[in-house]
Structure prediction request, 178 residues.
Amino acid sequence: MRTLISSYTIKHCGLLASMLASIFMSFSSCDSGLEPAGRAPVASDSGFYAGTITFENWPESTDSLLEVVLVVYREAPARNNFLNLTTISDTLILLSQTQGKTSFSFERKLRSGSYPYAVVAQLVSPNLFESSAWRLLAVANPRFDGDSLGTPFTISSNQRTVGIRFNADFTRSLPFPR
Prediction:
């Protein structure tokens, strides 16, 4: 019986990992989010954002580390709809690149515009589309006035927005924005 359960769990986690990778890779490989494929991006429609994620207190056990992601939104998501695909502008899968590291630098291309909310989040359960499956670890450029939204940033055409920082602490979970 134990072998059957272990076998089922391994297959279930593998399926979840495949689904998660497919969803996030489709967004991260696309410069224009959910824009129709027929519209060719104009060179001035995008810029770059760059920064650093600092990690603290990585869990001893990897059981709680299904995935860690950076997600950039066009508007802050509702608590019950963390993976609202209509508001996500960019995603970056982090776990395989960052596990055990104290910091990670990134630079990503993104459509020009204002981005009011960006987070580093940890997937803690295989129920990918349920908000309870996610723990928010960090917001972009956190303010120290108790506001959990962080500081918005703007991407200008053909420009680099630099200095975006995240301080992800695995022992602290932030509240969802609304």
Notes: The CA atoms of residues 16 and 126 lie 6 Å apart. The two ends are 43 Å apart (CA to CA). The helical segments are 2-28, 95-98.
